[in-house]
Amino acid sequence: MRKIFNKIALSVLIALFSVSLLAQNPDSLTFVTAKAVANAEKDGIVFNNYLFEGNLFNSNQCISVLEVPAGYHFDVVIAPEGTLVWTSLLSVGANAVAALNGSFFNMRTPYGGVTYTRVDGTTISDNNKDVPTSFWSRSIRQNGAVAILNGELYVVKADELRNWEKYIFAEDVLTSGPILLVDGVKEPQAPDKFNTTRHPRTAVGKRSNGTVVFVVVDGRLPEAAGVSTTELSLIMSWLGCRDALNLDGGGSSTMVFDGRVVNYPSDNKKFDHQGERVVANAIVVRNQ
Q: Are 26 and 40 in the same domain?
């Protein structure tokens, strides 16, 4: 009788604990229990797309996730000098299995000091936006970087050194931000419109086991509201990332897998795969 009572008591405690978690953040349960509406797999890389009809962050959401296991080779690739190119074309040119749009750029002069970009050990663009009030101020925007050393991708948070990105020991470096997660802890997000307004967003994260996670949250469409950077950090946390970084978003947000665009880029204002925007750089995944 005592064993039965103990089992009942344990079940009640588990139920109360689950209800407590749900009350704290019902969106987490909605997300982690969601069923993918589209999925694919190639050479161990897994793609899933999730649709939420008003039940995630009280909004419609469309979220694409690529999980790349350890062992793949990552690279930063750039558009030819002075030009902008679709992420999908950069992917094809690099013979990539998958690709994600990269960091911020200037539409008129793609490498005009908006982000620090290093490719194969050569500095392509030197970030010279040091004015604290600048929209692209490192203190607000570019407080992190993607660093690729010997083909392995790392998410790096800025330190207090001036021109900190120049001291990163890696062949490829691409600054971006804001940083979303560091060592499993959500980073505070500045309360400005860039962060708080819902937009299409792109992020890259890494789990403790070495899996790299690409995420695109579509937006600016009736079917997809987009997210704030705080909501994006929650998504990356729910996906099990230990470290995560926000990349360029808006119309640039594009995910390519096995040669095709798999998210719903917003530049044509249609919920299809045709609204891709040209970009200056991308992160690509290749077979070793």
A: no
Confidence (pLDDT) at 107: 86
Q: How many domains does the chain have?
A: 2
**Same domain for 183 and 170:** yes
What is the SS3 assignment for 183-247?
A: CCEECCCCCCHHHHCCECEEEEEECCCCCEEEEEECCCECCECCECHHHHHHHHHHCCCCEEEEC
Residues 132 and 227 in one domain: yes
Of the candidates 256, 215, 73, the one whose C-alpha atom is nearest the C-alpha of residue 148 is 73
For residue 15, the enclosing domain spans 1-33
Q: What is the pTM of this model?
A: 0.89
Considering the domain architecture, whether residues 169 and 27 belong to the same structural domain is answered as no
Alpha helices for the chain (secondary structure H): 2-24, 26-32, 87-93, 193-196, 229-238
192 has a pLDDT exceeding 80: yes
Q: What are phi and psi of 153, to 5 degrees?
A: -90, 135
Q: Are residues 199 and 121 in the same domain?
A: yes
Structure-token pair, residue 238: 């729910």
213 contacts: CB under 8 Å, gap ≥ 6: 65, 66, 67, 68, 204, 205, 206, 207, 236, 239, 240, 241, 244
Q: Give me the mean pLDDT over the 121-140 stretch.
A: 65
In angstroms, rounded to a whole number, what is the distance separating the alpha carbons of residues 131 and 134? 5
